[in-house]
Amino acid sequence: MSTPLWTPDGGSLVVHADNAEFLPTLPDGSFTMIYVDPPFNTGRAQRRQQTTMVRSIDGSGDRIGFKGRSYSTVKGLLSSYDDAFEDYWAFLEPRLAEAWRLLADDGTLYVHLDYREVHYAKVMLDALFGRDCFLNEIIWAYDYGGRAKNRWPAKHDNILVYVKNPDAYHFDNAEVDREPYMAPGLVTPEKVALGKLPTDVWWHTIVSPTGREKTGYPTQKPEGLLRRAVAASSREGDWVLDFFAGSGTLGAVAAKLGRKFVCVDANPQAIEVMSRRLGSAASVVSAETGRPLPAAGA
Ligand SMILES: C[S@@+](CC[C@H](N)C(=O)[O-])C[C@H]1O[C@@H](n2cnc3c(N)ncnc32)[C@H](O)[C@@H]1O
Q1: Which end of the chain is less packed: N or C, by CB atoms within 10 Å?
Q2: Which of 91-95, 168-172, 248-252 is the least confident region?
Q3: Which positions fall inside the DNA methylase N-4/N-6 domain (predicted)?
Q4: CA 263 / ligand 1 centre spacing (Å)
Q5: Residue 54 placed within a domain
Q6: pLDDT at residue 75, as a whole number
Q7: Nearest protein Cα to ligand 1, atom 5
Q8: What is the residue range of 187's domain?
């Protein structure tokens, strides 16, 4: 048997791999927090990998959900409304099923989406996790770019939050950054100084095209968003995972907050950006060869 790339006592990793192939190599219950920001336009090219993955999870064709729900019933009904749904479900569902398996009993999953797909993913995650495991839908509100004239300009993303066990999940809002009061004159100076706890609507600027955080990776998300999620849903020393990692925002935040992380991406450009961004905080490895990859710029 080959040596596993990841061990609980090892250091943080950036892994170049298709997540469908790499995730099944990780042991059950290893991560306290998982954040994913998956691409929407996945297309049919992903099909071969999806089939392999579904088999590797359960060894059967028509799966029963974790709490006895039949996926095929829900999926069949939804697919009859929209062809694009069929592809989206086939790509994402087996990967989110892996996320469920990889979460620790006190773990939390954050799935970053937008208005085009959030309704599909909500139904999918309700079926996978169980409705009682739904914790929040976070709205990330920003204000950037042009404004459509023929409808309300869309200026938010949606982050669905699910917990593995509604009776045991870790959540510590004392660890998150607080917000200024909108009407400070209406509360005491002590309250103004302390700020207020964030709600499920997070106002945050996008990554500034000229700012310090910018890596050049097109879909990069701001560290401020991820900081809140990591701070509330994991503790120092815990393992966190992003298997659609892109520029490695989760890794950057995790390193600053003293968490250990695994960031996986299939795109060589993403691996290069992460290698540069995360520096000595992680080893960069290829899942295919099992060997370290040279650091960016080396
Ligand atoms: C929206 S981006 C993530 C951006 C990231 N949140 C950040 O802050 O930079 C989605 C990423 O998923 C990666 N991806 C798509 N399909 C994948 C797969 N099957 N396995 C691993 N990564 C994949 C893409 O290469 C892309 O970098």
Answers
A1: N
A2: 91-95
A3: 32-273
A4: 10
A5: yes
A6: 63
A7: 246
A8: 31-233
- With a 6 Å cutoff on the Cβ, whether 215 touches ligand 1 is no
Q: Where are the alpha helices (DSSP H) in the chain?
A: 19-22, 47-58, 71-79, 83-102, 118-129, 189-194, 223-233, 249-256, 268-278
**Residue of the CA atom closest to atom 26 of ligand 1:** 246
User: What average pLDDT does range 189-210 have in this prediction?
Assistant: 94
The amino acid that residue 268 corresponds to is P
pLDDT at residue 217, rounded to an integer: 95
CATH code for position 114: 3.40.50.150
Longest dimension (CA), the chain: 66
Looking at per-residue confidence, does 77 or 230 come out higher?
Answer: 230
Evaluated on CA atoms 250, 216, 137, 113, the torsion sign reads negative
d(CA 21, CA 190): 52
How much is the pLDDT for 164? 97
Does any domain span residue 283?
Answer: no
The secondary structure of the chain in percent helix, strand, coil, rounded to multiples of 5, reads: 35, 20, 45
In a domain, 105, yes or no: yes
Atom of ligand 1 lying closest to residue 270 CA: 27
- Phi (first) and psi of residue 118, to 5 degrees: -60, -35
Atom of ligand 1 nearest to the CA of 244: 12
Residue 294 has pLDDT above 80, yes or no: no
pTM: 0.89
Number of domains in the chain: 1
User: DSSP readout, 229-245?
Assistant: HHHHH--TT-EEEESS-
How many whole angstroms separate alpha carbon 115 and alpha carbon 160? 12
What is the reported pLDDT for 96? 96
Laid out side by side, the sheet with 103-113 consists of 201-203, 134-141, 156-163, 103-113, 31-36, 239-242, 260-265, 13-16, 283-286
The residue to which tokens 């095209």 are assigned:
209
| CB of 225 sitting under 6 A from ligand 1 | no
